[in-house]
Specification:
The chain has 180 residues and is an all-alpha fold. The longest helix is centred in the first third of the chain and has 18 residues. It starts with 6 loop residues before the first helix and ends with a helix. The protein has 9 helices and no strands. α4 packs antiparallel against α5.
Length: 180
Amino acid sequence: AEKTSNKTMLNVYFKGLSAIQSRWGYFEKAALYEKKAISYIEDDCGALSIALANLGVIYSQLKDFTNADKMADSSIKVGKICNVWNSVGRNYSILGNSQMEQKNYRNALVYFKTGMQQALLHHNSKSSIGILHRRMGDAYEALDSLSQARESYLHALKIIEGDHEMTNAVYLSLSHLSYK
């Protein structure tokens, strides 16, 4: 791909390398590869929107919430310009997660609710919608709105049926909630 200057293939390869590094927990390397992938994107705002969202997730894993928020905001802006909405729920999750980490639970809840509205409106994945429900539950729990937290967790369970990892996480959240 480098010999032929095939930018599309280079983008795909570097995104793949980024995904592998993320999976292994090497988020700094993942960020470098994702940035490299972005550098090869030309005239494809859909790909750019997704790549920016991916980079936002990586920065969140690194606890670099300033850059995570910048990438999520950029992805949302690119998505609006290009009418690409498949990452909108994930982007609002990133923004809400940043607020959760900073203990700004009310702000987090606003992002999660906005993300939910946008994700439903634009038919985002069940996974994205389930994650938003779970994170809304986390925000409600942090605000001691325990009945609303329970309701959000139960909605998440309905949506993520079949995703065992997510189901386990939601049941763990429900058990913490029951303890409270």
